[in-house]
């Protein structure tokens, strides 16, 4: 017993003599651990190479490098909290390399992050309808999610030209030569008017029409209805704008004779 007590006393004495060294060593280890931990945390949160280190992400990483979001690190859109990261890690360990386990950071999370960057675009219409009427109507008035109208393929978020027909089933195009046009060929989300058709959009194709005429201040679709009657009729002239023309001059007389507006007036 005496020998054991002597050994213990010696150890206590050594510890007391080396207390400063031990505290310094513990402090150094703690600081190094904190620095390494912080750097690793930043690596997982800010470095796209962390995502690329997984063999399942090779294709996605390549598409990201070619896309318009290549200057935005993966973790900005595919953000996971610490709790979600650990839940995903545990699930992956339990289920191995199976692709069947549920996760949201791949395809669901990014759609929730769109507005954080694109707020300058989508919120233009939240204050006034004079800017970006398309986003004002769809995003703010009707609360339609970005993914409903934009493609969700691998790092491709272009507007889905076929998505319009999912809601606007009654808006087929009846114009001659326009049957194959997508809605976005004519309608622009950034246009200020409810029709979402810029005045010069029609002229880009119909460039043989005179630019200056008595009706050049009108929008094309005020007379031509691509979703209905593409060619204007006398009835539409009288109902849309010229409601009192029958009582002006000889218009009433000519109309009683069976003449139509377009028989005399050539826009």
Give me the secondary-structure topology.
Blueprint: H1 2-17, H2 19-46, H3 48-52, H4 58-66, H5 74-77, H6 82-95, H7 109-122, H8 124-127, H9 133-141, H10 146-149, H11 164-167, H12 199-205, H13 234-240, H14 251-256, H15 261-264
Describe the structure in your own words.
With 267 residues, this protein is mainly alpha-helical. The protein has a domain at 73-160. It has helices at residues 2-17, 19-46, 48-52, 58-66, 74-77, 82-95, 109-122, 124-127, 133-141, 146-149, 164-167, 199-205, 234-240, 251-256, 261-264. The longest helix is centred in the N-terminal third of the chain and has 28 residues, at 19-46. The protein is rod-shaped, with a radius of gyration of 34 Å. The protein starts with a helix and ends with a helix.
Task: Report a brief summary of the structure.
The chain has 267 residues and is an all-alpha fold. Helices cover 51% and strands 0% of the residues. The mean pLDDT is 77.
Number of helices: 15
**Coarse structural class:** mainly alpha
Evaluate the radius of gyration.
34 Å
Instruction: Kindly state the percentage of residues in helix.
Output: 40-55%
Number of strands: 0
SSE sequence, one letter per element:
HHHHHHHHHHHHHHH
Report the portion of residues in β strands. Answer: under 5%
Overall pLDDT score: 77
Low-pLDDT ranges: none
What does the main sheet amount to? Answer: none
> First CA to last CA: what distance?
119 Å
Principal-axis shape equals rod-shaped
**What oligomeric state do the depicted chains represent?**
single chain
List the defining traits of the structure above:
single chain; mainly alpha
């Amino acid at each position: 017993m005496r020998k054991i007590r002597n050994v213990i006393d010696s150890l206590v004495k050594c510890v007391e003599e080396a207390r400063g060294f031990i505290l310094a060593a513990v402090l150094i280890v703690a600081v190094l651990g904190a620095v390494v931990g912080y750097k690793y945390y930043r690596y997982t949160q800010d470095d796209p190479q962390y995502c690329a280190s997984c063999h399942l992400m090779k294709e996605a990483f390549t598409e990201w490098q070619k896309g318009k979001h290549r200057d935005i690190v993966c973790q900005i859109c595919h953000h996971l909290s610490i709790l979600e990261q650990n839940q995903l890690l545990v699930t992956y360990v339990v289920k191995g390399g199976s692709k069947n386990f549920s996760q949201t950071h791949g395809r669901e999370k990014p759609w929730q992050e769109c507005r954080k960057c694109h707020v300058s675009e989508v919120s233009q219409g939240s204050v006034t309808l004079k800017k970006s009427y398309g986003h004002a109507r769809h995003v703010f008035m009707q609360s339609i999610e970005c993914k409903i109208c934009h493609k969700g393929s691998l790092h491709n978020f272009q507007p889905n030209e076929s998505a319009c027909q999912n809601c606007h089933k009654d808006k087929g195009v009846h114009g001659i030569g326009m049957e194959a046009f997508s809605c976005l060929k004519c309608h622009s989300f950034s246009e200020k008017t409810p029709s979402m058709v810029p005045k010069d959009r029609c002229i880009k194709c119909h460039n043989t029409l005179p630019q200056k005429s008595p009706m050049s201040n009108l929008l094309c679709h005020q007379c031509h209805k691509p979703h209905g009657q593409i060619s204007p009729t006398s009835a539409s002239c009288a109902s849309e704008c010229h409601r009192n023309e029958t009582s002006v001059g000889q218009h009433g007389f000519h109309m009683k004779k069976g003449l139509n507006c377009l028989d005399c007036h050539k826009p």
